[in-house]
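Before the break, one more example. Copy the sequence into your notebook; we will annotate it together after we see the structure.
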Amino acid sequence: MAAQSVVVMHAASCTIRDYVSVILHFVSYAANIDQPIESLEDSLQLCELGNTNVEVNTESAFECLEASCNKYEEEVRSKDDGEENITKKVCIICDKEFKHYKGQKVKVSSFVSRESIDAFLLTAKEYNDGVLINKINFALDEKKWMYYHNLCKRNCINAKGRAMVKEQTPKTSWHKKRDLHKIAFEKVCEFIEEFIIKKRKCRLLSQLDSIHKDAYDSAAKESVADDVAEEIERFRSHFEEKLLKHYPKSITMVTENNSKVCKPYSGVLIQDYDIGTLEKEDKLQKAAIILRDECSVEICPIQRRTFDAILPQLEEYAKRPKLVGGLCSADDSIHAITPRNLQLFHQLNFSWLTSHFLEIPNTPMWVGFNSLVLQDLSHMQ
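Here is what the structure looks like once it is written out:
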């Protein structure tokens, strides 16, 4: 019981190393201790002395140690996640604890050394992944354990590597044509969404094809490559299929008078539209395309227009101004000079005070009263 009280008393203050030391000493010298244990230090000291010929209940001692270790583990688990050296085991890449791959649960792994962390941080810097760099630096600053899924780490490195190779690989004519087709198809989609889907109108498929060709030719002219401006007959063969796949529940294609018409998916009858009118609109669209191709517009260089302000010439100020006159003393005769209009202002002041004393209505204050009596024609106030 003495061993139990000693171990429980020190459970909150001892580390794992202390518990391991006590267990080893109890296993090695349990039968050699001949006096009661007063403290943990005394137990270790007595075990080192190796005293003999004493019987000790080793089972109760091990039960006390097991209970104390369990209590210590519960206290460790009950601490908050923000405390030092205690973190939730989540992947630093996907922020998840578990990951399922091919029907199996993938657990997280931890970085075994600082060298592995530095290598992973260097990889993130090479790929310029700012989010991952911030996560690693935050974990290093907080001194937290870092975990990762092997699958997430492998996929992250491979994906970043493919992206860098893709950026560094020069584009061929096939890539340039693909980008031009994408731009032209986006123009057709804008036309379909505006007129067919929103305004509920019908348009000939040939008109949509003309819009696509016009957009492709315009984008090809802006391109510096000469091998991208080609005929797009091969694309026209699956143009209808691509439109129906892009808008599965928004548009549909019908055949009327040997002409394919693109109409809203529901709610619009093709009989309400005159096919001749649609053909005229298609002809106008084609004529506009031909005129744009034949007209050569001279592109003028962009000129920057600025306002030239006329600034007045300011005279240079003297760097060393000189004091022309001097200061007058208090007993100077210039202070005794009486102004000529002093008596006039005394009279005005007396009149203003008398007006207020007699309570004459609408009598202004001193400045307003003087402005009524005096007339100053100068521009400077």
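Residues 2-77 form one domain. The chain has three domains: 2-77, 99-168, 173-294. Try to locate both features in your own notes.
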